[in-house]
């Protein structure tokens, strides 16, 4: 068996990015995925500005743009009688977001990983982890033809999604878990402007995101308890809500030729797992998953991969240093992602509170505050950087304005 420095299980956003960065640092990397890649997968598609900044830093943004997905520079949010129109501030010099189809984005990242020296094997299903006296030391996997292989590595990275096999085989416990809050149905529509737009109503949430081929992903979120009822008549219920919530599609019908296949996600779990152990690490949705309603999954996966490249990869060859780096990495990424997790749960409750409407009305009056609000949505700014005591006090009083520093 070849001894790899790093074996990455899962070849999509988190895994391909992490493998690419490790290979660029001079490590021997094996990347496995059980799917035939590149291929499509359920996704919100949206890469917010912080994620775009990382794509640019990694030198792959031009390839993503070359797929033909439009630059998204305008955002809108509608709830009650509040209508916000603006754009997120730039992150790392990147003003636009992008939402490429996943089979295109994943192909760009995989190609960059292979170009960096990663050995990639698709249709390889991991069936177990190899162990020695120090912990995990490799993987066992089965090919499409049924052949079983074993490969050894100094570090095994599980980037294989919410139902991670690596997490299961490593015995990674769930350390934070919240109830599942929503289910989502989406399809691809033609005829909408290239704008990221959100619509919130009682017990419903809709979003439109422009993607390739002049299409937009149109998603409708329902409370999780309604999933069984919705899926019994999914197309009609989905289209009825699209017509009611998205002004550009008021005339939508179930036989509309502007959209095709309907996609559904009924199990949007919210959790953090223990993310590291002797010889293993979890990345992306394998470590931490949250409701897709804020569309932060891809950008947060890139953030984790970038931190992995900076904090863990330099120490892979030294077992003692690696153990310390894994512990530090676990603490740092949880600190960075806990806020977006809590914010996502707040939105996914689909609960329109009057206090929040009052705050949004106050923000609506100032274009600078609107842009800062959308910067929180994108992850460019933190909540604390926008929702200052002065803003909250002014909104509560219903008078005055807050000026930007």
TrEMBL record:
<feature type="domain" description="FAD-binding">
    <location>
        <begin position="5"/>
        <end position="298"/>
    </location>
</feature>
<dbReference type="Pfam" id="PF01494">
    <property type="entry name" value="FAD_binding_3"/>
</dbReference>
<protein>
    <submittedName>
        <fullName>Flavin-dependent dehydrogenase</fullName>
    </submittedName>
</protein>
<dbReference type="InterPro" id="IPR036188">
    <property type="entry name" value="FAD/NAD-bd_sf"/>
</dbReference>
<dbReference type="InterPro" id="IPR050407">
    <property type="entry name" value="Geranylgeranyl_reductase"/>
</dbReference>
<dbReference type="InterPro" id="IPR002938">
    <property type="entry name" value="FAD-bd"/>
</dbReference>
């Amino acid at each position: 068996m070849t001894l790899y420095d790093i074996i990455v299980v899962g070849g999509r956003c988190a895994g391909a990015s992490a493998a690419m960065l490790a290979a660029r640092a001079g490590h021997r990397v094996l990347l496995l995925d059980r799917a035939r890649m590149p291929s499509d997968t359920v996704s919100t598609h949206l890469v917010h500005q912080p994620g775009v900044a990382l794509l640019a830093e990694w030198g792959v943004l031009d390839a993503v743009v070359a797929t033909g997905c439009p630059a998204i520079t305008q955002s809108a949010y509608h709830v009650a009688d509040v209508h916000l129109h603006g754009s997120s501030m730039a992150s790392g010099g990147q003003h636009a977001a992008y939402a490429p189809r996943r089979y295109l984005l994943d192909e760009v990242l995989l190609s960059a990983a292979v170009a960096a020296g990663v050995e990639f094997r698709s249709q390889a299903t991991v069936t177990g982890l190899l162990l020695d006296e120090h912990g995990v030391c490799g993987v066992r996997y089965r090919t499409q033809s049924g052949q079983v292989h074993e490969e050894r590595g100094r570090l095994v990275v599980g980037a294989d999604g919410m139902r991670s096999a690596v997490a299961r085989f490593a015995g990674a416990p769930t350390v934070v878990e919240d109830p599942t809050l929503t289910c989502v149905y989406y399809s691809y529509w033609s005829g909408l402007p290239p704008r990221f737009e959100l619509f919130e109503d009682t017990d419903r949430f809709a979003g439109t995101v422009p993607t390739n081929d002049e299409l937009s992903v149109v998603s409708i979120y329902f409370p999780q308890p309604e999933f069984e009822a919705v899926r019994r008549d999914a197309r009609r219920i989905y289209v009825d809500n699209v017509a009611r919530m998205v002004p550009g599609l008021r005339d939508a019908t179930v036989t509309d030729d502007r959209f095709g296949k309907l996609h559904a996600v009924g199990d949007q779990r919210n959790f953090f797992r223990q993310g590291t152990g002797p010889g293993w690490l979890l990345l992306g949705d394998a470590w931490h998953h949250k409701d897709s309603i804020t569309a932060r999954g891809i950008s947060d996966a890139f953030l984790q991969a970038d931190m992995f490249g900076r904090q863990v990869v330099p120490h892979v060859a030294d077992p003692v240093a690696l153990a310390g780096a894994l512990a530090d990495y676990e603490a740092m990424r949880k600190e960075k992602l806990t806020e977006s997790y809590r914010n996502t749960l707040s939105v996914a409750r689909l609960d329109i509170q009057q206090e929040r409407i009052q705050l949004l009305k106050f923000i609506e009056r100032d274009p600078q505050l609107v842009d800062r609000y959308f910067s929180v949505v994108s992850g460019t700014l933190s909540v604390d950087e926008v929702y200052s005591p002065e803003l909250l006090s002014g909104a509560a009083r219903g008078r005055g304005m807050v000026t930007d520093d």
